[in-house]
UniProtKB/TrEMBL annotation:
It comes from the Bacteria. NCBIfam families: addB_alphas (TIGR02786). This is Double-strand break repair protein AddB. The gene is addB. It comes from Magnetospirillum sulfuroxidans. InterPro entries: Ds_break_AddB, P-loop_NTPase, PDDEXK-like_dom_sf, PDDEXK_AddAB-type. Gene3D superfamilies: 3.90.320.10. It holds the Pfam family PDDEXK_1.
Length: 984
């Protein structure tokens, strides 16, 4: 290796803004000559760093125009293929790198082939795509580190576990099959290595006469380190390292391990053949936060030299402007951070940045800032799958694959992009109509748009709407019904269907779907995917369409949208690597928990630690060292706010190892953070806490007597007693509850079917003895009744087996009862007019069954598919249905039945199962129960004919109904909780 030129390696202290110091140095070197500045070439780690340096030049020039140096990313990406001349003036004779999506598809196909050839259950296409992503990461790591697969077989000798042998065999996908499929092209990381090596060789052979500066890199890629070494050896070359610790004692420097923040720089200096003492500070200004950096360096001292803590020196003012938020949960952490960022805007020209690897926390903070209409600049962008067009195409694929199940239909139809050629407002109105018309609510209708059409056969407007929806999606629906389809055909039909569904009455679908930054990004993704599928041709075999939505989601994952404009100019969200080279006035280092920052040193899915070491790949701890270096850079910002959450998803967390080490040193030197954590947390809590909390009383409306109901059914009388507010909401406000969407078949559905089946059976055999095959006859009737529910398959699947057991018990029990019965009446209506203080009151009933017995009395039977009330509840008056029906019967209120006494009040519990059913009595004295029920009803009528009597919610909680549609309307949880707090 060529020796490093004297004085060519510099560093910028963590306490100084890296890009500002670098820009200032370049401006001073140019000495006011704009052409001299433009001659320089500056290599930075990535495009974001290039943008940051441009902004630094703008700040230092006071907004004056400049001819900037040629700024280039050290590791060019796919978009730089056309700009290779920027990196090598004469160009490079390199084959183009294979597009990432094409490589992903080919590896996915290889995984599917490998899985199918192994026997057992092969992976699904989406599972194969996830495995292919892991294989791609391994391939990238191998190429970045420049190791060879040649000795892979030797990593797993015979005494290793058998599953490692299987893994090595599986990895033949990338060792044997993948190279043969490249077709003269190369992988992206190999392409980057060749570019960097070619540039290094060119500069060594022909040293440029203009300045060449490589800055901000730690040289973790060997090819990058070689290029940095070549630049350091140039007469006009300069290497600028970020945050090299020039003050660490030599003993600690010699025993650095992979997880130390200085390890990567030590390794790089060895490759540059540059001793640490030869590295100079680039800035001539003093580091104002040197004490803080020294404190952190002491805290992160290598374990081998930690005995030096016994002689710790003082760190005066080290923690000035450093504070810590120790929040209970990520919600409070995000809220407190958002407040700190918002407060920074109160100072003119002050900037603030959130630095965290936790994307969930970053999104929470961005959402919190929206309460002040602040759109923060998030460098990581937003996942394309979560954007409006991304969610739309995903919902469309899911709805078609699931054959338009209720939730999938509503999610798609209510999306803002869905219109199918109509006015979007009209389209959504029809979607709401479909939802509220008891088509999507309750048990699921039959599959497909045809099932929806059959369920709304009486609504021509909805049928016409569904017809237009089906016409727009017909080609995609047809393909999704096939046994196997080419992925390219599915993608094309999917995108065409999305365009057709996105069209409204004014704008074509393509214009609505692909507009905006997110639409353009989705269009690029779909175009790249289509080109990749065309390039690989039949290599990607046909797949069952049911796997398409999951495969599409997997291919879409990882794609992001970065807004070009419209973000706040002084607030930022940066990743740790991006924050390495730039400082904001306030830096919030958040998510400081083990497993988040630093991330877990997860086990490699392909190799154990010894195997990785033998293979030549770096240990997982090296990544922790890089994250520690980024943390140290951010910790030296002008103002620093550290934060963590004590619990995440209910699980206690462990503070970051850097925080724990820092705490140990702080305790030893009696140091403390500048600001207490509770202030930010308390302020955030106050944001949503009212100054005064209004007491929520139990609702007790008193409508005028004229508005109160003058007729109720016997079942509603029970509600009237237990929860008068339910009667108020139903009969006075006129409110009715909607069924749940795509509900499991409930007891009410089952009860209705059983009642109807038994009614039809008894109507067929009203007087005579039952036939010997009564059970078979009842089952035949039941099949006819339940057949009407076949369009809602869940009803049949859930309840038909129960009805078979009910039929067995009912046929046997009915045969015994027929000896004492003179006539049977089923589903018979009755009423009884009563007088109250405000006028007549009509009591209504629909009895399940009334038997005229041969002794001249009546037997009332109520079918229950659930638990019937106990005799105690009936005697106490809280289950008055049968006694009130007996009162109607006593006075001849049932048509076709002469007035008579009631001798039996029975509940038939038709529950299915092994027993099938059982008979229970409502009480031993029907006469007394009837008299008491009538007296109680007269008292109830009189009470509610008084305008001062309220329709109170659940006046006796222990007697309240088990279920009510109006609990949320009565705000029961609010006033019940308030009563408990007040000791009531």
């Amino acid at each position: 290796m060529t020796g490093t030129a004297a004085g060519s390696v510099f560093t910028i202290a963590p306490g100084q803004a890296f890009v500002d110091v670098l820009a200032d140095h370049l401006l001073r070197q140019a000495d006011g000559d704009p052409l001299r500045l433009a001659e320089a070439v500056v290599l930075l780690p990535n495009r974001r760093a290039c943008r940051a340096l441009k902004e630094a030049f703008l700040r230092l020039s006071g907004g004056k125009p400049l001819l900037l140096p040629r700024l280039k990313p050290l590791e060019p990406d796919q978009d730089d293929v056309a700009d290779l001349d920027l990196l090598s003036p004469d160009g490079l004779d390199l084959p183009p790198p294979i597009p990432p999506i094409e490589r992903h598809l080919i590896l996915t196909r290889l995984v599917l082939q490998m899985g199918a050839g192994r026997g057992g259950l092969p992976p699904s296409p989406d599972q194969a795509a996830r495995l292919a992503r892991e294989l791609g990461d391994l391939l990238d790591s191998v190429q970045i580190e420049e190791v060879s697969f040649a000795h892979l077989d030797a990593l797993a000798p015979d005494d290793y576990a058998a599953h490692w042998q299987i893994t090595i065999d599986f990895l033949k996908i990338v060792t044997a099959h993948w190279p043969a499929l490249l077709g003269g092209r190369i992988d992206h990381q190999d392409w980057v290595n060749r570019i960097l090596d070619a540039q290094a060789e060119r500069w060594r052979a022909q040293p440029p006469d203009h300045p060449v500066i490589v800055a901000g890199s730690t040289g973790s890629r060997p090819a990058t380190a070689r290029l940095m070494a070549a630049i350091a050896a140039l007469p006009t070359g300069m290497v600028v390292l970020p945050g090299l610790d020039l003050h660490m004692d030599e003993a600690s420097w010699q025993c650095l391990d992979d997880s130390h923040p200085q390890y990567a720089l030590k390794h790089l200096l060895a490759r540059l053949d540059a001793p640490r003492r030869a590295v100079a500070e680039l800035s001539t200004k003093p580091d104002l936060r040197a004490a803080r950096s020294a404190l952190l360096a002491e805290a992160l001292r290598p374990a081998a030299t930690c005995e030096a803590w016994r002689h710790l020196r003082d760190f005066p003012q080290a923690l000035t402007d450093v504070s810590l938020i120790d929040a209970p949960t990520p919600r409070e952490e995000a809220g407190a951070i958002a407040l700190a960022l918002r407060q920074a805007l109160e100072v003119d020209e002050q900037t603030a940045a959130l630095v965290t690897p936790d994307r969930d926390l970053a999104r929470r903070v961005a959402a919190e800032l929206e309460r002040w209409d602040i759109a923060i600049d998030d460098s990581a962008g937003r996942p394309l799958a979560l954007t409006e067009p991304g969610a739309f195409v995903r919902l469309l694929a899911t709805a078609v694959a699931e054959e338009f199940t209720p939730h999938a239909v509503l999610a798609l139809a209510k999306h803002p992009l869905a219109a199918a050629g109509l006015d979007p407002a009209r389209f959504r109105a029809l979607a709401r109509r479909l939802e509220t018309a008891k088509i999507l609510r309750g048990p699921r209708p039959a599959a497909g748009i045809g099932g929806l059409r059959a369920a709304c056969a009486r609504d021509p407007a909805l049928i016409q709407w569904l017809d237009s929806l089906e016409a727009a999606l017909a080609p995609f629906i047809s393909l999704m019904k096939a046994e196997t389809v080419a992925l390219a055909d599915l993608l094309r039909a999917h995108m065409e269907a999305a365009e057709a569904l996105a069209a409204d009455h004014l704008i074509p679908g393509a214009a609505r779907l692909w507009r905006g930054e997110a639409g353009e990004a989705l269009g690029r993704f779909a175009g790249d995917l289509a080109e990749a599928l065309a390039a690989i041709g039949p290599m990607f075999a046909l797949l069952p369409p049911r796997f398409y939505p999951a495969l599409f989601d997997e291919l879409l994952s990882g794609k992001v949208v970065r807004p070009i404009w419209g973000r706040h100019p002084r607030l930022f969200i940066w990743g740790p690597m991006e924050a390495r080279l730039q400082h904001a006035d306030l830096m919030v280092l958040a998510g400081l928990n083990e497993g988040t920052w630093p991330a877990k040193a997860d086990a490699d899915p392909w190799m154990s630690r010894p195997m990785r070491k033998a293979f030549g790949l770096p240990s997982p701890e090296r990544r922790i060292g890089q994250m520690a270096h980024d943390f140290a850079q951010g910790f030296a910002a002008p103002r620093v706010l550290l934060s963590r959450a004590a619990r995440v998803e209910g699980t206690p967390t462990v503070p970051s190892r850097w925080l724990m080490r820092l705490d140990a040193v702080m305790t030893a030197r009696h140091l403390a953070f500048a600001q207490a954590e509770w202030e930010w947390l308390a302020w955030h809590a106050l944001l949503d806490r009212p100054d005064q909390r209004a007491r929520i009383d139990r609702p007790a409306p008193r409508p005028p007597v004229a508005a109160r109901p003058r007729r109720l059914s016997v079942t509603e009388v029970e509600t009237w007693m237990r929860d008068p507010y339910g009667i108020y909401a139903k009969h006075i406000l006129g409110l009715r509850a909607l069924d749940p969407i795509d509900a499991d078949p409930g007891a009410a559905d089952y009860g209705s079917l059983v009642h109807k089946a038994v009614e039809k059976f008894l109507d067929a055999y009203p007087h005579q003895n039952l036939p010997d095959d009564a059970e078979a006859k009842l089952l035949a009737v039941g099949e006819d009744v339940f057949a009407q529910a076949l369009e809602r398959p869940g009803v049949w699947a859930f309840w038909w087996p129960r009805f078979r057991a009910v039929a067995r018990w009912l046929a046997s029990h009915e045969q015994q009862r027929r000896r004492d019965i003179a006539a049977i009446h089923t589903e018979i209506n009755g009423e009884l007019e009563m007088e109250g203080p405000a006028g007549s009151f009509l009591l209504q009933a629909r009895a399940d069954r009334i038997d005229e017995l041969k002794d001249g009395t009546l037997a009332l039977i109520d079918y229950k598919t659930g638990q019937p009330p106990s005799p105690k509840e009936v005697a106490a008056g809280y289950a008055p249905q049968l006694p009130l029906e007996a009162a109607i019967a006593r006075f001849g209120g049932f048509a076709g039945i002469a007035p008579a006494a009631v001798s039996q009040m029975l509940y038939w519990r038709l529950m299915g199962g092994v027993q099938g059913g059982e008979e229970k009595s409502a009480g031993p004295d029907p006469q007394r129960l009837t008299d008491e029920a009538l007296d109680g009803l007269y008292g109830l009528i009189a009470a509610f004919d008084d305008p001062n009597t309220p329709y109170e919610a659940r006046p006796h909680p222990d007697r309240a109904p088990k279920y009510s549609d109006y609990l949320h309307l009565a705000r029961v949880k609010e006033w019940a909780a308030a009563g408990e707090e007040d000791g009531e």
